[in-house]
Amino acid sequence: MSPPQPPPADSAEQRFRALYADVHADVLRFVWRRSAAEAVSSAEDVVADAFLAAWRRFDDAPRRLDAQRAWVFGIARNCLLTTRRGSGRREALAVRVNDAADDSGALTTTPHDELVAGLDLAAAWRRLAPAEQEVLALTVFEDLTSAQAALVLGTTPTGYRLRLMRARRALRGHLSDGDAAEPAPAPRRVSPPATDALEATR
Amino acid sequence: MSQSRIPDPSLDAALRRLDAAPRAPLDDVARVRATSVLERTLAVGQLPDARAAGRRDPLVPRPRRTGVRVALLAGAAAAVAVAIGAAQVLGGGATAYADSWEPVPAPASAADVAAAERACAGTARSVAGDGASRLQPRLAERRGDLVLLAMDDGAPEPATVMCVAALPPGGGADFLSGSGGGGVVRPPADGVTDAGIFERTTPGDELSVIDGLAGEHVEAVTVRTADGRAVEATVEGGHYAAWWPGRAMVESDQPLPSGAQGGCAGDCDGGQPVPSYTLDVTLDDGTVLRHVVPSAG
């Protein structure tokens, strides 16, 4: 009897294993940012559910690895929304940030860096609407391109770029309010000024 | 100093220092759990059979069609009518419509608009359904024998319909092509959205129509086509639109056309049509944004 043979190098299983190895940690971090700080085990459960859905629909996956990463983020996001709301998928997920930046090892190299570091950015972040946090997080924390982030949110790249522009403006607005530590008011919609037309994001 | 002057990279760098889940290696326990999850997934999960594969899984995101693709698909359905209408109205010459084409449009008359509206009523109903009655003409132009009409419902994220009718002097109006969509956020005052594209690809008889939304400070849009044409679009009523004989899309095995923003998401394995034109956008303060590249979707 011959020993069991590993699957062919280009088989779906092998490709899925490669995807898992490459993105599992990133997906865990993605879910962790959008979960309660104490919910470590439930975050791992969500990630497991997401990868199970991804494996079952692996034929639908994009072919490029960077797009696959965004695709799995989108599945994980839908798993989180399903867990929290049962059926609705229209709601955005709030994204946690730490209370204070640990700048012990960070270098501030420009006047802008020093300016931002001196502001209560975490408080300003918490005044953003969840949808604004989510849009910014995909670019800042998950390091996705506009097209990849659009795939996660189920929108178009152009629509994502507009939402990103508005979210950045809202964050800057909260920073400049001078009372960023105050409790957040109801989310407000911020219209982009003319100077941001055709703004290149990524 | 105004906070609005903080550049994006500085703001992003500051935010990254607040990341609640910074990159860190998994410890031994987490690594074992991750391996266990993978093996359990492969053991429990089954690749879908052919029947199940056709079903939509609500957990699995699919790339959303952009305005470009929605319009292109709607236009593809209309292309059947295009061939019939063109043969009837334009006398059957394969490039008859091109003979009357002009790079600079003329305003359409009120009578042209009314005739085009009637010819395009079917497209309006198929695109907007019960909302068709709310569609109002926003832009109309004439180039030779063809009248292009863009309509929307005035909503913040409007439903739009673009339609082309053949209206030769002394003749009746016949539907030539139509497309439409909805849910596109209006651009900022000095920006434009990606255009919806209708393209007829019959060799020797190609025709392309584009229609997008323009901000209030956009004064002119010039389309630079891949075959070297400079087509002056009509900018009116919050829309820009133009048509020309030739292709607006090109089959590409590249993820994105040169200069496009963003990366590739979805099925990126070649053969996807991407816009082959660029736009020069002139603002009312004289600023010209040159070679604006439509996104590939």
UniProtKB/TrEMBL annotation, chain A:
Residues 19-89 form the RNA polymerase sigma-70 region domain. Signal peptide: none annotated. The keyword Cell division does not apply. Keywords: Sigma factor, Transcription, Transcription regulation. Residues 175-202 are annotated as: Disordered. Transmembrane segments: none annotated. The keyword Transcription regulation applies. Residues 122-171 form the RNA polymerase sigma factor 70 region 4 type domain. GO terms for biological process: DNA-templated transcription initiation. Residues 181-194 have a biased composition (Low complexity). It comes from the Bacteria. GO terms for molecular function: DNA binding; sigma factor activity. Belongs to the sigma-70 factor family. ECF subfamily. PANTHER family: RNA POLYMERASE ECF-TYPE SIGMA FACTO, RNA POLYMERASE SIGMA FACTOR RFAY-RELATED. This is RNA polymerase subunit sigma-70. The lineage of its organism: Bacteria, Bacillati, Actinomycetota, Actinomycetes, Kineosporiales.
TrEMBL record, chain B:
Keywords: Membrane, Transmembrane, Transmembrane helix. The chain crosses the membrane at residues 70-90. This is Uncharacterized protein.
